[in-house]
Design brief:
This protein is an alpha/beta fold. It has helices at residues 2-5, 18-32, 56-73, 79-82, 122-126; strands spanning 10-15, 93-94, 100-101, 111-116, 138-144, 156-161, 164-171, 176-183. Residues 75-90 have a biased composition (Acidic residues).
Length: 189
């Protein structure tokens, strides 16, 4: 939505881990038909138990496909479902005063969608800092919140934070530490 409707500027998206990064990059590349050099669509995902989101992604994909099908069917019987919570997903945006903001028609400008996490090679990590081919291209970086404190990416104008993080939790009974996905604190936001 930011890519299609807001002025030029890079987008930085924070998610909880490598699996989430790979998933979001794959979905965005498919949606915006991004053809960056290294496509991660065939990378193996971490085990589902590594993320609280797990197989919920499949359900999200099915729900999104169903909503897209309804929108294109011209079926007006589901108006009640489209109102309410999901009403912000309509094709018309409004500014702070309630004035409609026009949405550009046609294809959106080119974008480069890149992952950023510690297990990437140094060459792939540096690609985030490389200049874009032209001024009409947009950089979209999908990263963990750990990168938030360790790197400044030039030309980032928009930041999207999921509000989740992986926290190390120690179980006193078993003596084992594990990473659990939880909501970030207000102080961290």
């Amino acid at each position: 939505r930011i890519h299609r409707r807001l002025p030029q500027g890079g987008i930085l998206v924070f998610v909880t881990g490598k699996q989430d990064i790979n998933y979001v990059v794959r979905v965005l590349r498919k949606r915006f038909n991004d053809k960056t050099e290294r496509d991660i669509t065939n990378l193996p995902l971490e085990n589902d138990h590594d993320s609280e989101w797990g197989s919920g992604y499949d359900q999200i994909d099915r729900d999104a496909d169903r909503m897209e099908d309804r929108r294109h069917d011209g079926d007006d019987d589901d108006d009640e479902e489209e109102e309410g919570v999901d009403s912000d997903m309509s094709d018309v945006d409004h500014d702070a005063d309630g004035v409609p903001i026009p949405v550009p028609d046609g294809p959106c400008r080119p974008c480069h969608i890149l992952p950023l996490h510690a297990l990437l090679s140094p060459e792939d990590q540096v690609r985030v800092l490389a200049p874009l081919p032209s001024d009409d291209h947009r950089l979209i970086v999908i990263s963990t919140n750990v990168a938030e404190t360790s790197l400044t990416i030039p030309n980032i104008k928009y930041v999207v934070d999921t509000g989740r993080e992986k926290v190390k939790v120690y179980d006193h009974k078993t003596g084992i530490s594990s990473l659990k996905v939880s909501w970030i604190s207000k102080a961290s936001a």
